[in-house]
Amino acid sequence: MEEVGSQQSSRSAGLNWERAEEVMKAKGIAALIATTPENIQYVIGSQLRASNWTMQIYAVLPADRSTRPCIIIPTNRLGVVAQFGITNVDIFAYSDFFVEGTIEGKPSTPDIDLFYSLLQSTVIHKSPLDALQAALKQLGIEHQPIGIDEMRIAPQILEGIKKTVPNEAVIPSYGLFRYIRLIKTSYEVSRLQEAAVLNEQIEKELIDLIEAGVHEKQIADHYRLAVMKGGGIPAMTAVGAGPRSALPLIENYFHTIESGDQVRFDLCLQLEGYWADTGRTVVAGEPTPWMKKHFDAVKSGWETALEHVRPGVKASDVFHAAVSRVQGEGIPHYRRQHVGHAIGLELYDDLTLSPGDQHILEPGMVLCVEVPYYELGAGGFQIEDTVIVTPDGFEFLTHMERKLFTK
C-alpha cells in the first residue's frame, strides 16, 4: 500500500494553495469545485478523466485547509483511484457497479488491495447530485456560497446545487481556476521542464531523420511512438514539408520530402498531465536566400519578444514589440494573432502574448514564446521555446539550438 500512496503524495504539490486561498477569500466562497480534468488534477494531484460527456467527476477544494478535498466519482472509477493511489481525499461515489470476489488469501497487488478496501468502505450514492450534496454537507458548507467550474457540470446538477445555496450564490469558477493556475509552483515548473525536455529530445531525433525521400508520415509516426515510449501522450503533430510547411495545423500527411524542402515542426505532448509545445524549422539541403531572409526575420522577432519577457511588462506589449521587429527585419506585411501563450495543465493557460491581453507578467508564469510565419506557395517557419518568468527576466526550460537547421 505504501507504494501506491507514495505516488500520490508526490503529485499533490502542484496546487498553489496561497493563491487559491486568496481567491476564495476575495470572492467570499467556502470551496471551489473542479469539473474539468485539468482542474481536477490541480486539486487532487492525479488525473481522473470521464470516458464520455455525460459522466460527472468533480473535486471539491475547501477554503478551510484543515479539511480534506473531496472527489465525486462514478463507482466504476474506484479502481482508477486505487491505481493512482489517491488516498488524501474523501470519496463520494455514485451509481451501481458490481465487482465480485474477494482478495482474502488470493493473488493481489497494492492497487487491488486498495480497490477492495474502497469497495467495502465507500458509501454509494444514487446520483452525482446526491454525492456532491453529501460532500458539501460533510464539509459543513452546504448552505454557503461556493464556486463551481462550469465547464463540465451537467446543467441539471448545477441547478440542483443552486437550490441549496442561499440566494443561489454559486459563482462560475472555470476562470478562477485558470487565474490560480497561472502562477506555477516549483513542482509544476519541474513537471513542465520534464515535458519540454522530452519534446525537444524527440525533436532532435526528427531532425536526424530529415532527408530527401522521407515521407512526412514517417516523421509524424516516429514522433508519436517516441512520445509514448517516453511516458507521454502525443497531441498536435504538425510536420509539414515543402509547400505544406505553410499549413499552420497539419493532421494528415501527403508529402515526400524533396531536396531543398523546408520542414516545419510544431509539436505538442502531455507528460503526467503537463503540456509541452516546441517547434523548429529544418531544410533538407541548402537554404535559399528567401528562406534565410524570412527565418532571420522570424528569429529576430522571437528574440525581441524574449527581451520583453520580464515582470511588470504587459502581455500585449510583448506582442507589439515582436511583430514590429519582424516587419522591420524583412517581412513588412507580417501579421500574427499572438506570439506565445502560457502553458501548464492546459496547452493554452489563461494568458496569450496577443494585442488584446492586458495581463501583467509575473514571476512563476511559464510561457511558450513563438513567432511563426506561414506563406502559401512558399513555406513556413517555426521557432518556439518554453520559458519561466523570473524576478529578473526569464529562464529557458528548453535548451535546443535556435537556428535554421540544415541536413
Automatic annotation (TrEMBL):
Pfam families, per this entry? Creatinase_N (PF01321), Peptidase_M24 (PF00557)
| SUPFAM superfamilies xrefs | Creatinase/aminopeptidase, Creatinase/prolidase N-terminal domain
Recorded GO molecular functions are: aminopeptidase activity
Please give the superkingdom of this protein's source: Bacteria
CDD domains (UniProt xref)? APP_MetAP
Keywords recorded for this protein, A-Z: Aminopeptidase, Hydrolase, Protease
Q: What is this protein called?
A: Xaa-Pro aminopeptidase
Q: Where is the Peptidase M24 domain?
A: 191-390
State the coiled-coil residue ranges: none
Cross-referenced PANTHER family: AMINOPEPTIDASE, XAA-PRO AMINOPEPTIDASE P-RELATED
Residues in Creatinase N-terminal domain copies: 18-183
Instruction: Spell out the InterPro entries in the cross-references.
Output: Creatin/AminoP/Spt16_N, Creatinase/aminopeptidase-like, Creatinase_N, Pept_M24, Peptidase_M24B
